[in-house]
Design goal:
- The chain has 364 residues and is of the alpha/beta class.
- It has two domains: 38-140, Nucleotidyltransferase, domain 5 (2-Layer Sandwich); 165-351, 2-Layer Sandwich (Nucleotidyltransferase, domain 5), CATH 3.30.420.
- The protein has 14 helices and ten strands.
- The chain has helices at 2-9, 16-25, 30-33, 69-75, 80-102, 121-138, 147-153, 155-158, 197-207, 221-229, 254-271, 282-310, 331-343, 353-356; strands spanning 38-43, 48-55, 60-67, 111-117, 142-146, 165-170, 175-182, 185-191, 320-324, 347-349.
- It has a five-stranded mixed sheet. A five-stranded mixed sheet has the order 8-7-6-9-10, sandwiched between helices.
- α6 links the parallel β4 (111-117) and β5 (142-146).
- Bound molecules: 5'-O-[(R)-(carboxyoxy)(hydroxy)phosphoryl]adenosine and zinc ion (ZN).
- Zinc ion binds at residues 147, 151, 171, 325, 358.
């Protein structure tokens, strides 16, 4: 029913036979109920072409992913038309690989689920176009998926967790705190007023020219900052914490990014190096930026937890904070959040690292 709400809730035209097919596939047959619902998930919202087949018990039958990170690192950011072209070149291969790893044919699928929003329009279009083709060819029901809802619900693959719970989603495109009341029932408590933390870390990594550093040249910006920060001393730089006086759960990262940018320019002058060369204090800057991001995220999350506890949404029996999205794979940020959850008697749950970043499993 909830999935149906979701189908009807998105501005996506579905033919009557698709809706009927979907309803029929969910008619209750106790003897057939288990084992026969296989969903193919397709994800192309940003720079990963991913697919997976999952059954209704959460078993992953097979998956495949093609990451565009290396290409976009070279161009200094995602160029939508380049991402679109790479999705086009890879989607068929990835879906075929997924089906073959799952040991099934398209005919055995119960439905095809695809990210329809939010994301880069050109990238989303490739997944949607390819799924439409499959849906028409094999007469399968279509399930449109909201990318952020998928991130928020991924934890239910690995942990038995009841609604409601609090979720923090931190990625390259988003930053939000929400109460998850049901499969497609979310109450937004706060969001980024400007850019997302992953986007900010990507920009700082580019400004620090980490692509020229052999150890970090193939990593996403956020991951490169995390690794470089291990060798730095965060106390050597002091960046102002965003939204210090705003008593709500919103986030902001663009002011911090500007401050870091200015600091890098100043240090380049002091060290007498050209823009594009690596600063001797790059690790210290990475450590300070990571700390400021972690502590900003932790403070807003702390406020959200206190609010939920005060309103009785999070009770001692369901005091769970789920953290997901690409930036949630940052162990320093996880540790900082652990301090908050310990202090508020909450349980911190994060999906395994590979399920935090974009993947087909969360869509399926
Ligand atoms: O969720 P995701 O794979 O794609 C989006 O939906 O955005 O997140 C990608 C973002 C990138 O900005 C990347 O730099 C960031 O997640 N990221 C990290 C780490 N690994 C990936 N940020 C901080 N620490 C990491 N270890
Ligand atoms: Zn994502």
């Amino acid at each position: 029913m909830l999935t149906l709400n979701k189908i009807l809730g998105v501005p996506c035209r579905l033919a009557k036979w698709q809706i009927h097919g979907f309803l029929k596939s969910f008619t209750f047959h106790p003897e057939k109920q288990l084992l026969h619902k296989l969903v193919l998930g397709i994800e192309t919202s940003c720079d990963d072409t991913a697919a997976a087949v999952v059954d209704e018990t959460g078993n992953i039958l097979g998956e495949a992913i093609h990451s565009q990170t290396k290409v976009h690192l070279k161009t200094g950011g995602i160029i939508p038309s380049v991402a679109q072209q790479l999705h086009r070149e890879n989607i068929e291969k990835i879906v075929k690989e997924t089906l073959s790893a799952s040991g099934i044919t398209p005919n055995e699928l119960s439905a095809i689920a695809t990210t329809v929003k939010p994301g880069l329009a050109l990238s989303l279009g490739v997944g949607l176009e390819y799924s439409t083709q499959l849906v028409n060819q094999y007469k399968k029901p279509f399930i449109p998926i909201h990318h952020m809802e998928a991130h928020a619900l991924t934890i239910r693959i690995t942990n038995k967790i009841d609604f409601p719970f609090l979720v923090l989603l931190v990625s390259g495109g988003h930053c939000l705190l929400a109460i998850v009341q049901g499969v497609s029932d979310f109450l937004l408590l706060g969001k980024s007023l400007d850019i997302a933390p992953g986007d900010m870390l990507d920009k700082v990594a580019r400004r620090l020219s980490l692509i020229k550093h052999p150890a970090y040249s193939t990593m996403s910006g956020g991951k490169a900052i995390e690794h470089l920060a291990k060798q730095g001393n965060r106390l050597h730089f002091d960046f102002r914490h965003p939204l210090h006086f705003c008593r709500n759960c919103d986030f902001s990262f663009s002011g911090l990014q500007t401050a870091v940018d200015r600091m890098i320019t100043q240090k380049e002058k002091e060290e007498g190096i050209e823009k594009g060369e690596i600063l001797s204090c790059a690790a210290d800057i990475a450590a300070a930026v990571q700390h400021t991001v972690a502590s900003h995220i932790a403070k807003r999350t702390h406020r959200a937890i206190l609010f939920c506890q005060q309103k009785g949404v999070l009770t001692p029996s369901n005091a769970v904070l789920v953290v997901s999205g690409g930036v949630a794979s940052n162990l320093y940020i996880r540790k900082t959040l652990e301090i908050v959850t310990k202090a508020t008697n909450c349980i911190l749950l994060c999906p395994p690292l590979k399920l935090c970043t974009d993947n087909g499993i969360m869509i399926a």
